[in-house]
Amino acid sequence: MDQLTTERLVVRGWQLADAGDALSVYGAEKVTRWLTPVMGRVADEDSMRAVLQAWTEDQPNMLPPRGRWAVQLKNTGEVVGGVSVRLLPPYEEDLELSWQLKPAAFAVARPHNKRAILTAERLGMQWVGETDKYYDLRLQVFRIRPSDLLED
Fold first, then answer.
1. Contact in structure between 141 and 128 (CB atoms under 8 Å)
2. CB–CB of 26/51 below 8 Å?
């Protein structure tokens, strides 16, 4: 995916120039404490630039639909978060869609995070139960099947 544009957002590949905006997301303990797998808070812009460098180098090696992308406000160009699709443990077939958003603009997610649950539902995902299969955490599971994404 090169870029996805909606009415309000642009989802695109990460760039090193995004380090300042990305730090406001991944440098916020309010965000990183919820991440799975666990990711420590990024301490400074140089460290964030190193993380973005690793992500951009890794991107071509990820089989679609897997990857990591920046979420940018269409009207201002401000990067307000990130979205990723990756394999869940045991890394065979289950995919995780995750989003990490600036605390000042959006909310973050775990089982009791009502906003995240509502976001998953708005995306058309269906709740299928709870599990501790992933990351040794008790998590809410939502799914969407490829056939659910096809237009009638």
1. yes
2. yes
CA distances to 45, 55, 112, 141 from 109, rounded to whole Å, are 24, 22, 8, 12
Splitting the chain (152 residues) into consecutive groups of 10 residues, what average pLDDT does each group show?
Answer: 86 97 92 77 96 96 93 92 89 84 60 75 80 78 68 52
Amino acid of residue 26: Y
Identify the CATH number of the domain in which residue 46 sits: 3.40.630.30
Give Cα separations from 25 to 30, 83, 143 (angstroms): 9, 12, 25
Q: For the chain, how many structural domains are there in total?
A: 1
Nearest-angstrom CA–CA distance, 102 and 79: 9
DSSP-H helix ranges across the chain: 19-26, 29-32, 45-58, 114-122, 146-149
Q: Please state whether beta strands 79-87 and 67-73 pair in parallel, antiparallel, or not at all (unpaired).
A: antiparallel
Q: Dump pLDDT digits (tens) for 1-19.
A: 789 998 888 999 999 999 9
Cis peptide before 64 (omega within 30 of 0): no
The residues, ordered by sequence, that sit 6+ positions from 138 with a Cβ below 8 Å of its Cβ are: 111, 130, 131, 132
Q: Look up the domain containing 135 and give its range.
A: 3-149
